[in-house]
């Protein structure tokens, strides 16, 4: 069956709700509307208002009441409507969701998934195109993952819901309805907190996650026509980072470029570059380079293509790496 | 030319009602005409049309004992802080009736979401007061099991737990333990917070969620008049209990220094919630006789005359007066409670000093349910690093 990312996520939610009656969905407009991106489409109709809960318009309220639900033994899956709206819930996420397991010496589990459609490229107004992942990856107690394709969307969401740790689940919103992929449920998924080589290569390693994995794959195709073989790794998990495949790749290629939409300063790329430098120093032919959003607020959408890392900026960084 | 109805000179400010500051002035100290009271500061029983109830002699003596022991927990912990055994302590002096009245109104299946000052409620839930000290000594974040005691962890971020309480209550609804008509089954949640917390978004969002879903939760606000140094006038222009109306559920102001009234009002609100009739806001009108915490200096911001005024409303003295007047203290009751308090004090003094420091290796262990490999690696490096010192010591 060929599915979009939106369909994969919807199917993943449905499967998780069928498998475990304790799974609940909470969020703004998730019920009759099916979410503003229709990810929860049809679920309230089939599972009822007690399990797919249309909430008041209050992000801290959504996450905070989900904390109480989790304490009562439920597994809430919370939808934050857009990345830029997660900040009113930031306190509940970093001070409560992330710390309750530690604070209670493991007696109170927090099996919660917070879904956040993230990233730009959809021509939206401000606060609808942000990439807040580093803020959560910097918080101990949270796990942070980002899917990049329909098949991962289907499996990773189910795995995140099954995890007894709280998971920030990032969905690249511009991919929701972009491409279709074949879902073969007989092919079992990789573990949730693992990164994966999605295209093999020998000359340089491109590291990315979420919406820019597609950009990196295009860059690898373009570079191939110039005779360069780029390896592309989809990180998939940002906290914890799965550095094994990354280090193995960089030791082989000697070059790495990290690509993400978030601001470069203190972003995921900084952490990844730092770890590569610590652990592959003598294998490196060039410093690890970063391509990302500028250190500015997200710009008005008419010029967002200039802000977002595109094919040319990735290829430019590849060229710079080879100049060393 | 006809007058323009929207022009500013047509607007009469008196259409908006009287100046609210005049209704609720900073000098009001008696709680106002709506205050539910069953026992006066002089220890005389009074009656209330809505919340009256009968109390047995045993119940009254029990309230007295609970309050005396709770006050002892507080004074002993304050002394331990002064001796350097606790880093800080959040005092409840003066708020014993509010906490014991609320705590004793609970049934075992009800669930409590406390702030960091609910030592009296914790006492009612059967938690060893020594287990409260770990957080303030810095050896843990609270030693009790929330699920076993139905008493959540202390919450430091102001008001955050009000949402947890509401969500937990929504979970109870889904578990089918609300409105069944079975007294041992029907359950409710109580969320504690202070007057300062009433300004927080989370508290107001909790009100909205609870109202929207008719959640079985009682919002119990101890209005002790001060949010550290910020007075109640900085939080609200109307009596706090009146806010409930704007959210669509009942609010009631009770004399928080009257354990009988606090018990009666809380019991009614909890019962309402258990039956599926939704949330209630209780404002327990009281006064923080001590400091916000032991790091605070209330002489910098409040009048000693106010403190003297509130001393006359002491929650323990009025029950004692009532018990004596009605001949309920025969058989050395007061002395036996005092003896019990002394033993409790000894337990806390000795126990506090012997609370073990946690094993530093435990820093890593319970951050996650499933520990990531990178954290395992950090832990192993930490253990090896520490071990290297003892090896050096052994070889020297």
The coarse overall form of chain B would be globular
The total beta strand count of chain A reads 14
Strand content of chain B: 5-15%
CATH class of the largest domain in chain B: Alpha Beta
Identify the most extensive interface between protein chains: A-B, 46 and 42 residues
Q: Which fold does the CATH topology of the largest domain in chain B refer to?
A: Rossmann fold
Order of helices and strands of chain A: EHEHEHEHHEHEHEEEEHEEHEHEHH
Stretches of chain B where pLDDT falls below 50 for ≥5 residues?
A: none
EC number (chain B): 1.2.4.1
Keywords (chain B): Oxidoreductase, Pyruvate, Thiamine pyrophosphate
Pfam families (chain B): E1_dh (PF00676)
Enzyme class (chain B): oxidoreductase
State the gist of this model.
The complex is a heterodimer of chains A (324) and B (396). Chain A has 324 residues and is α/β, with parallel strands linked by helices.
Key terms for this structure?
heterodimer; A: about 325 residues; alpha/beta; Rossmann fold; 2 domains; seven-stranded mixed β-sheet; five-stranded mixed β-sheet; 14 strands; about 35% helix; globular; B: about 400 residues; five-stranded parallel β-sheet; two-stranded antiparallel ribbon; 7 strands; about 10% strand
Give structural notes.
The complex is a heterodimer of chains A (324) and B (396). Chain A is of the alpha/beta class and 324 residues long. Chain A folds into 2 domains: 2-182, Thiamin diphosphate (ThDP)-binding fold, Pyr/PP domains (Rossmann fold), CATH 3.40.50.970; 196-323, Rossmann fold. Chain A has helices spanning 5-19, 43-47, 59-71, 90-97, 100-103, 133-137, 150-162, 212-225, 244-253, 268-280, 304-307, 311-322, and strands spanning 2-3, 23-27, 52-54, 75-79, 113-118, 143-146, 167-172, 181-182, 196-199, 204-208, 230-234, 237-239, 256-263, 289-293. In chain A, strand 2, helix 2 (43-47) and strand 3 form a beta-alpha-beta unit. Chain B has 396 residues and is an alpha/beta fold. The longest helix of chain B has 26 residues, at 57-82. The model of chain B has no long low-confidence stretch (mean pLDDT 92). Chain B contains 15 helices and 7 strands. Chain B has helices at 20-23, 57-82, 96-104, 119-124, 130-137, 146-149, 160-175, 201-213, 243-247, 259-274, 304-311, 315-325, 333-353, 362-365, 373-395, and strands at residues 111-113, 189-194, 217-223, 226-227, 230-231, 251-255, 280-285. Chain B is globular and about 75 Å long. Classes of the chains: A alpha/beta (324), B alpha/beta (396). The interface between A and B is large, with 46 and 42 residues.
């Amino acid at each position: 069956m060929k599915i979009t990312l939106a369909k994969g996520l919807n199917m993943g939610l449905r499967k998780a709700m069928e498998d475990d009656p304790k799974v609940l969905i909470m969020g703004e407009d998730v019920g009759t509307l099916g979410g503003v991106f229709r990810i929860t489409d049809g679920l309230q109709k089939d599972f009822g208002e007690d399990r797919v809960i249309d909430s008041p318009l209050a992000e801290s309220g959504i996450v905070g009441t989900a904390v109480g639900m989790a304490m009562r033994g439920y597994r809430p899956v919370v939808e934050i409507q857009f990345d830029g709206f997660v900040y009113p819930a930031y306190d509940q996420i970093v001070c409560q969701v992330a710390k309750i397991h530690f604070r209670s010496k493991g007696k109170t589990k927090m099996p919660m998934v917070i879904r956040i459609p993230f990233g730009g490229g959809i021509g939206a107004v401000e606060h609808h195109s942000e990439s807040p992942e580093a803020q959560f990856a910097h918080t101990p107690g949270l796990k942070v993952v980002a899917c990049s394709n329909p098949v991962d969307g289907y499996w990773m969401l189910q795995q995140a819901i099954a995890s007894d740790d709280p998971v920030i689940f990032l969905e690249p919103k511009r991919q929701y309805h972009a491409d279709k992929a074949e879902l073969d449920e007989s092919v079992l998924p990789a573990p949730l907190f693992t990164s994966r080589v999605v295209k093999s290569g020998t000359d340089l390693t491109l590291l990315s996650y979420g919406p820019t994995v597609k950009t990196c794959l295009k860059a690898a195709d373009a570079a191939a026509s110039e005779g360069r073989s780029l390896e592309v790794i989809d990180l998939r998990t940002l906290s914890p980072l799965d550095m094994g495949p990354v280090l193995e790749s960089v030791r082989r290629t000697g070059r790495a470029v990290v690509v993400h939409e978030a601001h470069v300063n203190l972003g995921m790329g900084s952490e990844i570059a730092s770890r590569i430098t610590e652990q592959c120093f003598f294998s490196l032919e060039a410093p690890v380079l970063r391509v990302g959003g500028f250190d500015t607020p997200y710009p008005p959408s008419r010029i967002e293509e200039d802000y977002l890392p595109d094919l040319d900026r990735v290829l430019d960084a590849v060229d710079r790496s080879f100049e060393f | 030319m006809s007058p323009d109805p929207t022009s500013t000179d047509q607007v009469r400010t008196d259409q908006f009602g009287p100046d609210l500051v005049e209704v609720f002035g900073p000098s009001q100290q008696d709680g106002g005409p709506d205050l539910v009271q069953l026992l006066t500061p002089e220890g005389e029983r009074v009656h209330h049309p809505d919340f009256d109830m009968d109390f047995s002699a045993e119940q009254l003596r029990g309230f007295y004992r609970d309050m005396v022991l709770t006050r002892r927990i507080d004074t002993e912990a304050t002394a331990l802080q002064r001796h350097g055994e606790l880093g800080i302590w959040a005092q409840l002096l003066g708020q014993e009736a509010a906490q014991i009245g609320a705590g004793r109104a609970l049934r075992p299946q009800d669930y409590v979401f406390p702030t960091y000052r609910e030592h009296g409620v914790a006492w009612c839930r059967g938690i060893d007061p020594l287990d409260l000290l770990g957080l303030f000594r810095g050896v843990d974040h609270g030693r009790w099991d929330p699920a076993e005691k139905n008493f959540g962890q202390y919450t430091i971020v102001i008001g955050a737990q009000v949402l947890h309480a509401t969500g937990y209550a929504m979970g109870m609804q889904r578990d089918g333990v609300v409105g069944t008509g079975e007294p041992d089954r029907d359950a409710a949640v109580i969320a504690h917070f202070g007057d300062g917390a009433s300004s927080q978004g989370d508290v107001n969002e909790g009100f909205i969620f609870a109202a929207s879903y008719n959640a079985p939760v009682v919002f119990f606000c101890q209005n002790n008049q001060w949010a550290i140094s910020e007075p109640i006038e900085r939080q609200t222009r109307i009596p706090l209990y009146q806010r409930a109306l704007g959210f669509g559920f009942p609010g009631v102001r009770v004399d928080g220094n009257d354990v009988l009234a606090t018990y009666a009002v809380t019991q009614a609100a909890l019962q309402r919630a258990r039956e599926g009739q939704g949330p209630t806001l209780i404002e327990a009108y009281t006064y923080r006789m001590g400091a916000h915490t032991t790091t605070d200096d209330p002489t910098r911001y409040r009048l000693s005359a106010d403190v003297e005024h509130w001393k006359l409303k002491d929650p323990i003295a009025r029950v004692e007066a009532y018990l004596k007047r009605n001949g309920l203290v025969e058989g050395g009751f007061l002395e036996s409670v005092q003896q019990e308090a002394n033993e409790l004090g000894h337990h806390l003094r000795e126990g506090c000093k012997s609370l073990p420091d946690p094993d530093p290796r435990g820093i890593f262990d319970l951050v996650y349910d499933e520990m990531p490999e990178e954290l395992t690696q950090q832990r192993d490096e930490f253990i090896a690093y520490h071990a290297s010192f003892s090896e050096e010591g052994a070889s020297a």
